[in-house]
Amino acid sequence: MRGGNRRTRLRGLPLGRPRGQRLGRPRGDRLGRRFGWFWGAYGTSALGTWLAFGAFPLIAIQVLHSGPAQVAALSSVGAAVGAAVAVPLGPWVEFRRKRTVLIAMDGVRFAALLTIPAAFALGALTFLQLLLVSVVVAAADITFRAASGAYLKALLPAEDLLVANARFESTAWTTTIVGPPLGGVAIGLLGPVATVVADAVSYLLSALGIRAAGGHEQLPERRETTRIRAGDLLDGWRFILADATLRPLFFNTALFNGLVMAAQPLLAVLMLGPLGFAPWQYGLAFAAPSIGGLLGSRLARPLVTRFGQHRVLVGTGALRALWPVGLAFIGPDTGGLLLVTGVELGLISCCGVFNPVYATYRLERTATDRVTRTLSAWAVTTKASTALLTAVWGVLGSLLGPRTAIGLAGVLLLATPLLLPRRAAAPLPEPEPSPSRG
């Protein structure tokens, strides 16, 4: 699942609620039983994802004896092609019941991943199959994320969105801390294919959890033209670029995420190569700071309550950009390890606050009938920009050296706060609900 998700148990009530009406959920901090099922489904699939972290490259290297170029293609080409495949799915999903789409995307990922252990058992596993599965999973991930955002906005009242997003963020960081060590043990005992099975099963359990949430979801009203036209594929980007507050945030997140991720392979080369750190030290430097994301997500709501959404969004968005440049000064000893750990702790703590606030802000600024297309376009752009910048920084690392390229990424990140929204914007008025056709 790699995305976010939710529910409140009241059978017979439509998911698309009249404006101002709650879905009959209990008062207090509880968000309802249906949200609980959705949250549990997210946590299950997120844990499966992190259990299988790095399994595809390991299978390519250990089982298929693939070279560096093929291993790199699994992440870069797979993600890029998957993003392209997901482009037409956004407009299609917009006019479908989101809960049905979520279950279907979990089913697609379950089936696709299961082909790997099946082919391995038959001695028929190939690199092409690994690549095709990575494309299918990437496209399903993007579609799931977009549908889950629309589902969440329809499920909960606006004042509960930040609480829900903070819970998903804390769950994401918790699984990040727990998953890779457990996955490493499983790979050591059973091999990387076993963790792919665990990942596949997590999607099946997620689908069952979403289905168990129950409730009736209203079918979104379709346009008069039912066929998707070529121009419809760009609707998500049109909505984003036409909004004066979403537009800068869109460019900020795409550039920030791309530059941070582009520097990661170079940092691995630097730490495990010239600086001589052991693999366990490298893993520790990135695993331990994940606790900052968990703490940051818990602080998001109190900070917004005290300082306001816009100030927290801009403040933490700017603070997170200050840390990565410090990675260019890493040394070969314990001090270098502490430097990386400290930088990552600061970066992840800021992201832990920023991410749920930004996710809530984006949902509030997007009309209900445009959420899926907007989130799909956002995710496609983020994946594509990350793949592109990773490739560019790979070339820069070869030409300038890893340390210089890491420093260059850090310097460019210092400029990303200029793309944050300058002023707070009022939430968009919600249109009156249309009669259900479902």
Automatic annotation (TrEMBL):
SUPFAM superfamilies: MFS general substrate transporter (SSF103473). GO terms for molecular function: transmembrane transporter activity. The keyword rRNA-binding does not apply. Its main location: membrane. It is a multi-pass membrane protein. Residues 1-27 are annotated as: Disordered. CDD domains: MFS_MefA_like. This is MFS transporter. Gene3D superfamilies: MFS general substrate transporter like domains. It comes from the Bacteria.
